[in-house]
Structures are given as C-alpha cells and as structure tokens.
Amino acid sequence: PPRSTPKPSSAASDVYKRQNYNLPPLNFIKKITTQPRADGIDLENTYTYGRHALLDAWAEKTFPELKFKQTLVQLQKPGEKVAPHVDTLHGQIKSWIKQEPALANIEHSMENPNPNFKARRYFIGVEDNVKGQEFILNGKHWIWKKGDCISLNVWRGVHNTANNSNKNRYIIKITGLEK
Fold first, then answer.
1. With CB atoms 3.0 to 4.6 Å apart as the test, which of 17, 49, 76, 176 could cross-link to 163 if both were Cys?
2. pLDDT tens digits for range 155-171
3. Confidence (pTM)
4. Residue 109 in contact with residue 146, Cβ under 8 Å?
5. DSSP-derived 3-state class of residue 177
6. How far is it, in rounded angstroms, from Cα 139 to Cα 158?
7. Closest CA to 129 of 157, 175, 159, 168
8. What is the reported pLDDT for 5?
9. How far from the centroid of its chain's Cα atoms is residue 123's Cα?
10. Could you please report the per-residue DSSP string of 113-174?
C-alpha cells in the first residue's frame, strides 16, 4: 500500500484518507461476514460483522504502525442504519490494559482525552460507494472508492451510517493503538 503523507479528507479536519489499499478478495469478505449485531439500546442500529485469522494477517501487514489490532468486516444491508455516536472503545481499552498493564496509569477520559493515548480506528471501503450508502463523520459525508481508508479521531469523531441503496455495503474496520 502507498505510504504517502495523509491529507485531510473532505469529511472533517480530524479524518484522513489514504487510497489504493490492496484488499482481501470480496468473495472471502462476503463469506466471513455472518455475525449479526445490534447495539442493545436502539435495536434499529444494526449491521453484520465478520472476523478471520486471514483478515488479521492482512491487517498486520497493511497497518504495521498499530498494535493490539482488532480487525472486522462490517456489512450493512439495505435499510439498515447506525445512529450518530462517538466510539468509547471501552472493550478495546480493557483488552489493551490486560496486554500492557502500564496503560492503566494513563490519565484519560472522553471529556479530556490524553494525546499520548493514541487509539486509531480505520475504515476501509471494500467496494466503491454507491448512491444511498451513507457514512457521515462530524456532519460531513464520506464518499469512497474501493481501497480508500479514513482514520477518525475516536474520541471526537461523531459518525453514523445508513444504507439507503439496494446493495450491501462492506467496510473493513481496524482498531488499535499507535506503536
């Protein structure tokens, strides 16, 4: 993948875009994306996700700057949506502290994020965006091509999605800490 300096995307000042990542085959991505998910509060917030060791190996090669990677594929079917939210990463943080106990000593909160606690969340378009597939970051629409990647400020990046198209939407989501 190209390693050029990220440029601010049109989505928001704290969101960056890199292009042309070499992705795993679409048939593989479709095959592993089988686990339904709803957020438990708003049962209309739905998508399907998938994990696989080969996807983890791809992420390890593609994003060596991250440690403690969690790599998922998200499938959002036509008619599904996820309401606006900011990611808290509570589950990931607990896992990271188990792997690196010194992280528990970092002063951090959603109100006062510690700039040294460099969590990253990347989203990568698996196919070109089609009309009706919405991914909104800090009030701005992200229009992607296959292989485009964004990184949002996980502590400040309000985002939501909706699939108002007639085509399934696949996105790879990678979460980790900068090394």
1. 76
2. 888 899 999 999 999 99
3. 0.84
4. no
5. strand
6. 8
7. 168
8. 29
9. 4
10. --TTS-EEEEEEESS---TTEEEEETTEE----TT-EEEE-TTT--EEEEE-SSS-EEEEEE
